[in-house]
Every structure is written in C-alpha cells, then in structure tokens.
Design brief:
There is one protein chain. The protein contains 8 helices and 16 strands. With 289 residues, the protein is an alpha+beta fold. The chain folds into 2 domains: 115 residues, 3-Layer(aba) Sandwich (Rossmann fold), CATH 3.40.50.10330; 156 residues, Tumour Suppressor Smad4 (Sandwich). The two termini are 23 Å apart.
C-alpha cells in the first residue's frame, strides 16, 4: 500500500494534473494506494499521520508537489522510517534536481519507485524540523518574507519583484556561525547551509554539496556592493559564483547561527535566529537515478 500525497495547487495547478497521471500509472499496474489531499497544510499533515498509523508497514509515500510538500512529508515519513518519493510539480523542485532527476522524467521516477530499492541519503535537522535541500538566512530570506506577503505576480516572477523591492534597502548583518571546529564572526549578506546543491528553482548555491557525505556545505557571502551583487548573482545558476573572493564555503556536520534575522528551509519559514542545524546521515530512504 502506498500513500499518494497530492498538492493540487502546486505549480499553478500542475500538482492536480500530475497527481491524476500518477494515480492512472498506479491503477494500470494494479498498485494499491490511498490518495491524500488536505484542505490545507495542517489537514494534509494530519491525514498523512492517520495513513501512517493505519499502515505502518506501507511501501512508501509518493508526494506530488514542490519543495513545500517535500518539507511537510519529511516531518512524517522520516520518524516513521518510511521511504519517500517526490514527483516534481512545484515551481522550484530543487530537491528533485539535487537527487539527479530531470524534471521531465516522471515515468522514469515512477518506474524506479516500483522496480528498484530506495537509497539512504542525509537530511538536515534544524531545531527539530527536517529539511532536504537548503537552510538559509540573509538576503534570500528577506526576499522570501516579501514574496510570501505579495498576492501579485504569481509564480517565480514574484521573487524577481521581491528582489527589486528589497535589494536597494538591504544591509549586511552581523552573524556568529559556530561550526564543528571553529566560530566565524562576520558581516554577511547571505548564509546557506546546504544538504542539497540548489534552491530557488535551480540556483546552485553549493554546487559541490553531496547527499551522502554526512556534512553540510556552508556558503557565506561576505559583503559586496549592490552593483557587484547584481553582477555575481546570475553566476549562481551555474555554480560559478563560488570562485568569487567574497564567497566562502566550509563543511561542517553541525552549524549554529546567531543574528537578528530569520531563516528558511526548503522555502518554508523556520523562524527567528538563533538556530542550530545538524546533518543526519542516512535519515531518508528515497530513489535516485
């Protein structure tokens, strides 16, 4: 028995159409499943909890949605040690990218789920909350705060507008970053604690991060001028920004960050700093190409 968890509104309706496709795929192969669609995130979480209670030895959970649905399902599947597969139907889909799947390989992902064994990968745990890809604080979190408060435009363009609003007034903040072996006290524009490689719909903020090395890649962007920021920013989509002298990347199993700032993980608001995150080896069973 599988749980098919669908966010019908993800990707501006892509979740609904892909959810229907996945259900048809499972039906055609006589695979038993139960559809879980909640009225909201809390309801969806409760329904998944009920399913896991009813079927503790289920085959796994298939989540059709974006990184927000990934974040929700991780909180339930990881403690229950249930395999989780993600069908990309959101606007960012960064966790699926990090796993190595093309966003168009829906049949390949589904066939892998049915015919291959899942693999163990690392997850981040920040103050009791699991995350798969990136935990971040700084400019990108401020942009997230602004974008979440906007009703227009829809989709990825919302973040472009939020950047245009926030960049002119943005100022670097002072951070205390405690790693396994040292503490960094610095002004910074952005800090990314990476289990996966990308966020924001393909921004390779930590292109060398690995999902099974037991360590975070921690990227610190030290202060640069706004003109220089606009020059460096496009390079993040190819991961070539890491050669810039203002970019520092270190590795650590545990990271604590203190500042007057907020943090986001997998695009979901974690809350005000201070925070402490730890990379947990082999926390999740999932499928990779």
């Amino acid at each position: 028995m599988w749980a098919l968890v669908i966010n019908p509104v993800s990707g501006q309706g892509k979740g609904a159409s892909l959810g229907t496709y996945v259900a048809g795929f499972l039906n055609s192969r006589n695979i038993a499943y139960e559809i879980i669609i909640g009225k909201n995130q809390i309801d969806q979480s409760d329904l998944l909890t009920n399913f896991i209670t009813k079927f503790p030895d289920c085959d796994g959970v298939i989540a059709v949605g974006g990184d927000g649905l990934l974040h929700l399902t991780l909180q339930k599947t990881v403690p229950a040690q249930i395999p989780l597969a993600i069908i990309p139907a959101g606007t960012g889909n960064d966790f699926v990218r990090t796993l190595g799947w093309s966003l168009t390989e829906i049949d390949e992902i589904l066939n892998a789920i049915l015919h291959t064994k899942p693999r163990q990968i690392d997850l981040g745990l920040v103050d009791g909350e699991w995350f798969g890809a990136i935990l971040s604080t700084g400019f990108d979190s401020i942009v997230n705060e602004r974008a979440n408060a906007m009703s227009w435009p829809k989709g990825p363009k919302k973040y472009d507008v939020a950047i245009a609003f926030e960049l002119p007034r943005f100022k670097p903040r002072h951070y205390e970053i405690t790693l396994d072996d040292r503490t960094i006290s610095t002004q910074a524009m952005l800090i990314a604690v990476a289990n996966g490689r990308s966020y924001g719909g393909g921004m390779l903020v930590c292109p060398e991060a690995e999902l099974a090395d037991g360590l975070f890649d921690v990227m610190v962007l030290h202060p640069i001028s706004k003109i220089e920021f606009l020059k460096v920013f496009p390079r993040v989509f190819k991961g070539t920004h890491i050669s810039h002298p203002a970019v520092e990347i270190v590795r650590s199993k545990k990271v604590s960050i203190t500042a007057d700032a907020v943090a986001y993980a997998d695009g979901e608001r974690v809350g005000q700093l201070p925070i402490t995150a730890e990379c947990i080896s082999g926390a999740l069973s999932t499928w990779m190409p």
